[in-house]
Amino acid sequence: MLKETAKTIELAVDAACAELGVTPDAVDYVVLEEPKKGILGIGACDAKVSVTLKETPAIRAYDFVETLIKNMNLDATVEIVEQDEEGVYLAINGDHLGLLIGRRGDVLDSLQYLATLAANIEKKGFYRVTVDVQGYREKRAETLRGVAKRMSEKVLKYKKSFALEPMN
Question: Which pLDDT does position 41 carry in this prediction?
């Protein structure tokens, strides 16, 4: 919740939206005090509004991840990198976040699953949530491409099939 004052209600809502980085249709607001013009400027009073973000699947996922990190006493920030009607991409940045990644991303996958459940709690369809910690997913994808390339070279060299560990 954010409180803002300005000469008009619309300007106060616009200022709050600019501070939150969203458009006016993504917020709900309550007028706390109507603007008053006064007489010759004496007794004039600005409009006061209270602005809150509308509850969306992306906001629910963001709030879940942020609360979890706060409760774990980790020094990290959560950021909405991309968002559309189908899903959201959340990035977690900070120091010493290996605990959130886990072995081969197991904890990160579980965190993403829980964030997806939180986002879809009131939604009829499916809202996709992707959670990443310090660019881990891209680094892991690059590593897996390297493994695939090495294994394909090995198959061509020895003319024999090789098995890889199960991967999601």
Answer: 67
